[in-house]
């Protein structure tokens, strides 16, 4: 693996190599951070995680993507995960933690990570802690994107998209010129099936039931930071930076 990567470096444009070198030099002075992002759908985790990732030179570990990548790479854990998925079973917590453990070997994860979508249960949190302890590290901060369900409902159920272009609108925050019609083409806008009040309600119920115990678990360790996720993104970013500084 290392030799093929080294051989391929010859084909990388100099400007890209220099950019990456400068990035790594800048990153070398940053403190290590191991973060978990917790929050319901639509709370803004997806907006903030790339900003945090770049600011602190962390790797972003989204467990769903990692599972798919492990399956595609046919790694030993990926093969096991694929067997479970093909039987319609849930991938075991140990397997997911194993895949996270593997990912932490990558150079991009050297300064730490952002975990998003995991742990969802207290058992997963305990297994994650055990694995990190074996590596001699621990979770530094849990960022809780706290937001009122009613605000989320307004945020999410107001979203409409133009399927062909991906242009998105919001009935309250970014309405189209004509209700239900795309500004550019005049075609009808649609709502994603996940963006309806009924779907959101069941997702939120599941989230509160599963994840609130996880927040309690980390609160006992005094590492939870509650963010005001209903604020505009720039203000949330400022809050995150204050918490992490």
From TrEMBL:
A GO term for molecular function: ATP binding
Residues in Adenylate kinase active site lid domain copies: 159-194
Pfam families: ADK, ADK_lid
InterPro entries in alphabetical order: Adenyl_kin_sub (IPR006259), Adenylat/UMP-CMP_kin (IPR000850), Adenylat_kinase_CS (IPR033690), Adenylate_kinase_lid-dom (IPR007862), P-loop_NTPase (IPR027417)
Gene Ontology CC: one annotated term: cytoplasm
UniProt similarity note: Belongs to the adenylate kinase family.
Assembly description: Monomer.
Protein name, as recorded: adenylate kinase
Organism whose genome encodes this protein: Lactuca sativa
């Amino acid at each position: 693996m290392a030799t093929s990567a080294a051989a391929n470096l010859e084909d990388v444009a100099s400007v890209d190599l220099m950019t990456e070198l400068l990035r790594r030099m800048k990153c070398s002075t940053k403190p290590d951070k191991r973060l978990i992002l917790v929050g319901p759908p639509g709370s803004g985790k997806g907006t903030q995680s790339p900003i945090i990732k770049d600011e602190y030179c962390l790797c972003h570990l989204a467990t769903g993507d990692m599972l798919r990548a492990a399956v595609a790479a046919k790694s030993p854990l990926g093969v096991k995960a694929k067997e479970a998925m093909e039987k319609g079973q849930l991938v075991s917590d140990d397997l997911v933690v194993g895949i996270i453990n593997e990912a932490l070997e990558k150079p991009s994860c050297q300064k730490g990570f952002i975990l998003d979508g995991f742990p969802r249960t207290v058992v997963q949190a305990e297994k994650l802690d055990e694995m990190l302890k074996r590596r001699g590290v621990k979770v530094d901060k849990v960022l809780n994107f706290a937001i009122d369900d009613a605000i989320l409902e307004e945020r999410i159920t107001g979203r409409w998209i133009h399927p062909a272009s991906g242009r998105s609108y919001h009935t309250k925050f970014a309405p189209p010129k004509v209700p239900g019609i795309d500004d550019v083409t005049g075609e009808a806008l649609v709502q994603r099936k996940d963006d309806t009040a009924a779907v959101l309600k069941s997702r939120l119920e599941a989230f509160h039931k599963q994840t609130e115990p996880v927040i309690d678990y980390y609160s006992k360790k005094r590492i939870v930071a509650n963010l005001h996720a209903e604020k505009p993104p720039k203000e949330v970013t400022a809050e995150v930076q204050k918490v992490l500084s």
